[in-house]
Design brief:
Helix content is 63%, strand content 0%. The chain is mainly α and 112 residues long. 16% of the residues are buried.
Length: 112
């Protein structure tokens, strides 16, 4: 992965604005790789905190927070523009989603 990649500042909701990636295949691939890495990090954090969740209330709260963060961010990280609704957008001919799908297949990211 290109360590120079910076998540677009305009994406306050963690969803990438379509104008940022449109017609920029290399940037989209970098985003997919970046998001897959972040998914793996969040998933690993769940497993790390799970091991100690029975030790104390604080450790259980850490684990719960790790789970909440993963689930809250998964949709935006799993696919450019958001995973939920991507199939419908692609089927309707949305050019951005089609390009994102092609890039996704090329990158073939592993989340966990």
């Amino acid at each position: 992965m290109n360590s120079q990649f910076q998540y677009p500042k305009e994406a306050a909701s963690r969803r990438v604005p379509f104008f940022f990636l449109y017609n920029n295949k290399q940037t989209m691939k970098q985003l997919i790789e970046h998001n897959a890495e972040e998914c793996r990090r969040l998933h690993a954090r769940i497993h790390e905190t799970c091991k100690q969740r029975t030790i104390s209330r604080e450790k259980k709260a850490e684990w719960e927070l790790a789970c909440q963060e993963f689930h809250a961010r998964y949709d935006a990280l799993a696919f450019p523009g958001g995973y939920n609704g991507a199939l419908e957008r692609r089927a309707s001919g949305d050019e951005f989603t089609i390009e994102a799908a092609l890039s996704f297949v090329e990158v073939h990211p592993y989340f966990f």
